[in-house]
Specification:
alpha+beta; 3 helices
């Protein structure tokens, strides 16, 4: 799966890593619902770090369609809220 981190680029990520990412996504959703800004920052950072660590960066000139788009590390709670579906940032 191709994942885009807004403002950074794309990474190719194996489907086998989505259980770990979904766990962080669920945590992030809970923090957003409760308005926990500090927890939101920490978990968003952990989610993006996991994508970077587990994925393989695509070259800057690659034009692959992104199957998943994640917010930039400095995105606000409100900006991320607008990106959410019922499942959070990561479907499933």
């Amino acid at each position: 799966m191709i994942v885009r981190i807004m403002g950074e680029g794309q990474v190719r990520l194996a489907d086998s890593h989505f259980a770990e990412l979904n766990s962080l996504d669920d945590e992030l959703l809970g923090e957003m619902e409760s308005g926990d800004e500090e927890g939101f920052r920490r978990t968003l950072g952990a989610l993006l770090d996991a994508v970077r660590r587990l994925g393989t960066p695509l070259p800057d000139d690659a034009l692959e369609p992104s199957e998943l788009i994640l917010p930039a590390p400095d995105a606000s709670l409100d900006e991320v809220r607008q990106m959410l579906s019922d499942d959070g940032l990561i479907p499933g």
